[in-house]
Amino acid sequence: MTAAIRLGVNIDHVATVRNARGGAYPDPVEAARLAVQAGADGITAHLREDRRHIRDADLRRLRHDLSAPLNMEMAATDEMLAIALDLLPHACCIVPERREELTTEGGLDVAGHEAALAVPVRKLAAAGVRVSLFVDPAPAQIEAAARMGAQVVELHTGAYAEGRAGELERLQAAARQALALGLEVHAGHGLTYENVGPVAAIAGLRELNIGHFLIGQAIFDGLAAVVVEMKRRIALGAAAGLGA
Ligand code: PXP
Where, by residue number, is the active site (predicted)? Predict the structure, then answer.
């Protein structure tokens, strides 16, 4: 029997909505709790340098108030390494980060930055954190990830999600190569109900990390119910005010 594929739910964009109003609602930790109750196998959150969505306090609460494994996405900077070593999440996924990008646009150039990545990979692994490198499905990157001593590669599925020709085959080949090198294989980025099936069929894949679509789809699955409830409360309020 093949091992079940874990689903890591990325709750960054619950924080995006919260931050749009500057208050505490909606709380990404509450959303994480709901996701775990519904069967999510872990929670993923990306602490970006500019704190545009998840903030330090969110991450601390995700780590300490929730029993589900926390996968912290982070750039390989001294600041993020210090936070990760203090927090000791279950896993850290090292991603490239550019301030001006809307999301993580491409995989990490592990092959071109082995010296810079060596310290965070070594220190996190020594602290007992599972280290994952977010890479494009390219042979040189997988080879470099294995050389670095990472335990996991997360394959960037963005180009596949955009429908680029040959990307599913590149993901399949990258997964085969990573498995042969002893790496655990995860994947994520841009996955939806429509495109997740062929990725889930990749032999040996152990985990998918999905965020933007899940939070967006929750609007379509949930909006009707909350409109009904709001109408009910408005009617109750109006009835209570009759004759006042
Ligand atoms: N995996 C990694 C490493 C990511 O950086 C992201 C985006 O934050 C995801 C998965 C999830 O991508 P999406 O939000 O498009 O589902």
Answer: 46 (proton acceptor), 73 (proton acceptor), 189 (proton donor)
Q: Judge whether 13 and 53 are in contact, CB under 8 Å.
A: yes
Beta bridge partners of 207: 6, 186
Structure tokens at 232: 């009910």
User: Ligand 1 centre from 241 Cα, in Å?
Assistant: 48
What's at 239, amino acid-wise?
A
CA atoms of 139 and 147, how far apart (whole Å): 12
Give the CA radius of gyration of the chain. 20
The full set of domain ranges for the chain reads 75-242
- For residue 104, what are its two tokens? 């993580």
Residue 74 dihedral angles phi and psi, to the nearest 5°: -155, 155
Structure tokens at 162: 């955009």
User: Encoding tokens for residue 173?
Assistant: 């080949």
Upstream peptide bond of 26 is cis (omega within 30 degrees of 0): yes
* pLDDT value, residue 100: 65
Residues in the chain, pLDDT under 70: 1, 99-104, 243-244
CATH fold for domain 75-242: TIM Barrel (3.20.20)
In this prediction the pTM is: 0.95
